[in-house]
């Protein structure tokens, strides 16, 4: 194209797909300037105006403001600098939108009251420091302030959610649910009892090898019976229950207990709260860990089996 070619504002509109009004608007703000004016005052633009307006249109569609666009077209900022700044701003907006979407999705599934909706929103928008404080208070209550004692620190870490900087919607939903659970005094009591029972099974001496807790023993021994469809009150369950009782007593250091069935039944009943499974399921989602195996079916089988034999 001849470098001396000039376009009227109408011709420029046809070449760029922008309206005459929009080009005049950009021209009035100095983003694209006419090469000259006719004696009658009509604007005439050079060939570079076509490329300049194409850039302006692209940047506007990406959401950039006119002040930034003017600085780009005037070469005060490079496109790389603008892209980096705008990408960072969009990431912040996306994070906020993801949080809002997660809250609304969770709310749609439970028909919350206004107060519950407000609490969900507050939990989803906590800062990292606020999240840590909330979970810290929950775990302090669960561990009764003794998390620095031998063995407790590791267990506490295994129960701590770490929401990433750019969480997925599923992780945000899991965080809101887990945070709500952590505020429930009844759930705190349940988890405190479970931790106390778990810690009671750990050896006292530092040189003593660690032992599995009774829940871990039950999981190992009962899985096959549950998978095979053995009824907990059937004769086929007798050897499973006998082995379960013996192994759990050994694991807990209670081999001299005169009534192991009753002690074990109490321990497993305390561990049968379904909220325990839910907490660790939500924890795995937040921390991007493999999904844990639900323990409730195995513990329920064990409880039913022990109750049936305690009643004999």
What topology, given as strand order, has the largest sheet? 1-3-2
> Which parts are unreliable, with pLDDT below 50 for 5 consecutive residues or more?
205-211
Give the topology string: H per helix, E per strand.
Answer: EHHEEHHHHHHHHHHHHH
Largest sheet: 3 strands, antiparallel
Query: How many E-type strands?
Result: 3
Supply the number of helical segments: 15
Average per-residue pLDDT, rounded, comes to 85
Helix content: 55-70%
Radius of gyration: 33 Å
Beta-strand content bin: under 5%
Taking the alpha carbons of the first and last residues, their distance comes to 101 Å
Q: Which class of secondary structure composition applies to the elements?
A: mainly alpha
Task: Characterize the overall form.
Answer: rod-shaped
Protein topology:
Elements: E1 7-8, H1 9-16, H2 20-28, E2 36-37, E3 43-45, H3 48-61, H4 66-73, H5 79-108, H6 114-124, H7 128-142, H8 152-158, H9 169-182, H10 185-200, H11 214-227, H12 238-251, H13 260-270, H14 274-287, H15 296-310
Antiparallel strand pairs: 1-3, 2-3
Helix pairs in contact: 5-6, 5-9, 6-9, 7-10, 9-14, 11-12, 11-15, 13-15
Overview of the structural elements:
64% of the residues lie in helices and 2% in strands. It has a three-stranded antiparallel sheet. By secondary structure, the chain is mostly helical. The N and C termini lie far apart (101 Å). The chain contains 15 helices and three strands.
């Amino acid at each position: 194209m001849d470098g001396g070619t000039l376009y009227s504002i109408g011709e420029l509109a046809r070449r760029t797909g922008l309206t005459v009004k929009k080009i005049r608007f950009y021209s009035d703000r100095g983003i694209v300037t006419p090469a000259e004016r006719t004696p009658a005052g009509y604007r005439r633009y050079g060939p570079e105006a076509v490329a300049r307006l194409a850039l302006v249109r692209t940047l506007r569609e990406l959401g950039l403001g006119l002040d930034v666009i003017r600085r780009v077209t005037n070469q005060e900022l490079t496109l790389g600098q603008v892209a980096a700044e705008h990408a960072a701003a969009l990431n912040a907006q996306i994070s906020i939108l993801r949080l809002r979407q997660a809250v609304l999705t969770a709310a749609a599934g439970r028909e919350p009251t206004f107060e519950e909706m407000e609490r969900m929103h507050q939990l989803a928008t906590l800062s990292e420091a606020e999240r840590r404080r909330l979970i810290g208070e929950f775990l302090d209550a669960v561990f009764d302030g003794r998390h620095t004692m031998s063995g407790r620190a590791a267990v506490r870490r295994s129960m701590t959610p770490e929401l990433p900087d750019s969480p997925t919607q599923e992780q945000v939903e899991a965080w809101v649910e887990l945070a709500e659970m952590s505020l429930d005094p009844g759930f705190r009591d349940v988890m405190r009892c479970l931790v106390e029972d778990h810690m009671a099974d750990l050896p006292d001496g530092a040189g003593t090898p660690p032992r599995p807790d009774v829940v871990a023993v039950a999981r190992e021994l009962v899985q096959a019976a549950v998978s095979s469809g053995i009824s907990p009150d059937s004769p086929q369950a007798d050897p499973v229950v006998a082995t379960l009782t013996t192994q759990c007593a050994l694991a807990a250091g209670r081999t001299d207990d005169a009534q192991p069935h009753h002690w074990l039944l109490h321990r497993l009943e305390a561990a049968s709260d379904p909220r325990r499974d839910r907490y660790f399921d939500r924890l795995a989602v937040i921390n991007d860990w493999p999904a844990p195996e639900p323990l409730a079916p195995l513990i329920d089988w064990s409880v039913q089996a022990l109750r049936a034999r305690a009643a004999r």
